Amino acid sequence: MSLFKNMLIALSLVVSAAAVTAPAASAQGTTVVMIDEGRILSDSKAGKDIQTKLKNLETQMKNELEPTRATLETDGKALQAKVEGKTREAVAADTALVSQLTAYQTRANAFAQKRQTVSQEFQLTERAALIEFNKAIEPVLMDVVKEKNAQVVMSKSQVIYSTDAIDVSALVISKLDAKTPTIAVTRQRAPAQPAQ
């Protein structure tokens, strides 16, 4: 799932929570407002800030892994050349080669574990940033609800048809930009894995 889709799902939870607190729009005179979570995330200063910081962190994480990946690739090709044309018995009889292959496999397994940990840390970081974004949006959304005297907030992604007049996304974005233009994005660390 893409970074943007994950962020939209998390943001929609905030909207759902706000909508649950409002009664159904069955009575005449009920004020309904709608927000476009994707637009708020992509157009607000805080949303852009999160996306930039997460992209930078993703690049940093890839750069951390690159030297080991490149070394493993080079060593793997060298070992492949040494093994090429030999039978299993011939490889097994060459204790130095067996030792090199075993060491290579150990390093490759450690790298795979490190890559998995880095991926998990990125997901944890993304989730933590979205929690902070949701915390920043909630009071802004409630201000807009009060300002518009709305009883129902709907997500544009859940509406089949609406007029642009009830879309308050621009108002939410302007208030969010004024109140919270940036969101702290701190790299989260994965819990230590038990030794196997």
TrEMBL record:
Keyword terms of this UniProt record: Signal
GO process annotations (BP): protein stabilization
Gene3D superfamilies: Skp domain (3.30.910.20)
GO function terms (MF aspect): unfolded protein binding
Gene Ontology cellular component list: cytosol
Chloroplast found in the keyword field: no
Pfam families, per database record: OmpH
Keyword Signal: yes
Signal sequence annotation: 1-27
Family, per entry: Belongs to the Skp family.
Protein name (database record): Outer membrane chaperone Skp
The organism of origin for this protein: Hyphomonas chukchiensis
